[in-house]
Design goal:
Two copies of one chain form a homodimer. The first copy, chain A, has about 425 residues and is of the alpha/beta class. Chain A folds into two domains: about 1-225 and about 395-410, Aldehyde Dehydrogenase, Chain A, domain 1 (3-Layer(aba) Sandwich); about 230-380, Aldehyde Dehydrogenase, Chain A, domain 2 (3-Layer(aba) Sandwich). Helices cover about 40% and strands about 20% of the residues of chain A. The first copy, chain A, has a seven-stranded parallel beta sheet with strand order 10-9-11-8-7-12-13, with helices on both faces. In chain A, helix 7 links the parallel strand 4 (about 145-150) and strand 5 (about 180). The model of chain A has no long low-confidence stretch (mean pLDDT about 95). At the A-B interface, strand 2, helix 10, helix 14, strand 13 and strand 16 of A face strand 2, helix 10, helix 14, strand 13 and strand 16 of B. Strand 16 (about 405-415) of chain A pairs parallel with strand 13 (about 365-370) of chain B, so a sheet runs across the interface.
Chain lengths: ~425, ~425
Amino acid sequence: MELEQQIETLCRQAQSASRVLAALPSKTKDSWLLSAAERLEANRETILVANRRDIAEAEQKGIATPMVRRLSLEGGKWEDMIDGLRQVARLQDPVGEISEMNVRPNGLRVGRMRIPLGVIGMIYESRPNVTVDAAALCVKAGNAVILRGGSEAFHSNQALGTVLRAAAADTGLPEDAIQLLPTTDRDAIDHLLKMDRYVDLMIPRGGAPLIRKVMRESSIPVLAHDEGVCHVFIDESAEMEMAAAIVRDSKIRQMAICNGLETLLCHRNAASRVLPEVLKRLHEEGVEIRGCSETCDVFSEAVPASDADWSAEYLDKILAVKVVDDLDAAVAHVQRFGSEHTDVIVTSDYASSQEWVRRVNSSTVGVNCSTAFSDGYRLGLGAEIGVSTSKLHAFGPMGLEGLTTRKFVLFGDGQLRE
Amino acid sequence: MELEQQIETLCRQAQSASRVLAALPSKTKDSWLLSAAERLEANRETILVANRRDIAEAEQKGIATPMVRRLSLEGGKWEDMIDGLRQVARLQDPVGEISEMNVRPNGLRVGRMRIPLGVIGMIYESRPNVTVDAAALCVKAGNAVILRGGSEAFHSNQALGTVLRAAAADTGLPEDAIQLLPTTDRDAIDHLLKMDRYVDLMIPRGGAPLIRKVMRESSIPVLAHDEGVCHVFIDESAEMEMAAAIVRDSKIRQMAICNGLETLLCHRNAASRVLPEVLKRLHEEGVEIRGCSETCDVFSEAVPASDADWSAEYLDKILAVKVVDDLDAAVAHVQRFGSEHTDVIVTSDYASSQEWVRRVNSSTVGVNCSTAFSDGYRLGLGAEIGVSTSKLHAFGPMGLEGLTTRKFVLFGDGQLRE
């Protein structure tokens, strides 16, 4: 009960702060971002001491090396984090923009003004730089933010949060706009997920169990950043070289990422012409090929795929490959096994390209390009808080705009309904 | 368990149908709307027999008269319902529109295409015409719809649903795009709220207990249509006649409606000049005035308000009235007691108008107009599925666009990240 009250107080403070923050001019928010960058630089050693303590504790607990590596704020990550704050300061503030302004027959002028959502709760794992990145984007969009990072990064996150709050005090931003849960107690998350009176949006980022838990238990609206089972479909008319390059870039440019290729589909009439060379090149770079029987026929190094492979998010050097009858069958496969994340066709045929774009309703649908472009920076959003797999509000890569909503604004001179 | 499987089957059928529906051209959807209108006319007597049966059963059960009256499909409601279908057929189809198309430095063309959400679940009470209105809007926006009306309107809804599905068979629309829960068993709702694998959005419309239940228990994203505690703030500089007309129109044009005025705020410096006349006119039309002590000082017919009055949604001939120090205090009152629905200022002062619009983040914020304009038709949306009090996705009056989302579409010629 004491913990619940503590969380409620923190949420209420965030809500009060959000109302002040919502009305602040861009320059105050940008000053905070720049001041936070400076203060982080000035407190670098203190923060890295906290960070090394987290790392040492994680090693002592026997946490796996890749996970421990993600904890570290060193090795370029520090500079990226600081640079990120300055970049966000340069982005255009979405708040206050009025669009779709029009005059109704009675003279009432009606438009839609972009406003902050209010209070955003972020629950994330391991990487402590997310604390800074997420706070920067949420605050730039005029929102208060409640941060709950992984327990293994607790000391790093607290040290970073202290600096972010101190920078607020410098610049006239309400300090309570940046809140960190003060405990690693998991009950705190349960309480937070019920604070719908104060919190407007929950964004969970991390493994599937965390995301499912938040979706199941939250009474606050959730934008999930869930898995990506992404496809490339090699159409009948695909050029072999383009297909090979796109498949390679989509699969092995970066492996442990939600926009990575997991299942390759190939039109039956292109299978013997295109597949052997495309798969040979991947296989030479160490990718295991798990194929349907026809794939195994045209590429002897493939191993037979099982049913589970069609919905697997490997995030690893494994690729599922299936030969399909035609575009219809490819679309049906994507709808059945995909995760509505990112799906690309490689084709030279106009009608196929249009069909694919029209019928595949994933958050990013591409023609003749790598799946790796499903990324806020690459799509021109200027920033990315994540890639939403929720269809409502923000579907796909999500930048500052996804952290806002719109209200109707009405300018009248005495208009009545009656 | 049997009921759960029945609901799951129905949801799965709706999902399959939604994928066909999403790719249909506007003309097929519009044919369905027009055919549904014709078939309803042709089956008028059968449907009204079912409707009269619901009404008779409701009367037998001793259900209150206003509720029984809302059940009826006669007395102009029938014609409005049919006309509504034809109006929706004339609306522009939002699906497929590409906006924000731009070319990235690498030549990749990126745009955002509007697409259906997929499957929408509607839970609503009493008025059976909602069955037709909601199905029309959901299907026009390319979505399958699962309808669960009030148990007291069961026979009417089944009769209407049968006709809507028959019209689908006429016009090449998948029949399963329109689903009605086949039972009044409340467990069916509990099962439906967990079908997040198939259903993309839940829209509850009705009393607060229904809405809270859905928000609390749904694992599917919810757009709530919750209460409106709407305000008019009479600023220091308000013209008396304009204030009186706006207050009257906002309060008594229609009483039992979420955009109706519930609390009137008045700047202290305008209280003696404006309030007595504004309140006198309302009082003469039978509105009970519940005022703060200063209101009671300037208008002797007022009765003292209690704390509960400031957050009451009366939906009745009662108005809470409070004198406040200034615009700051009015904004603070709205933030504390309001429901972020519709809030209007009456003012002659430029700075006050701008402050109000900037600082009050309700779904509809107005200057010098009636709160009654918070309505999809009046704001030019062409239609209205309801007024969302959820901040995400669609905030405020919600038309066809709110029943869609956007995907990123990428047109490349071989672009790679690497």
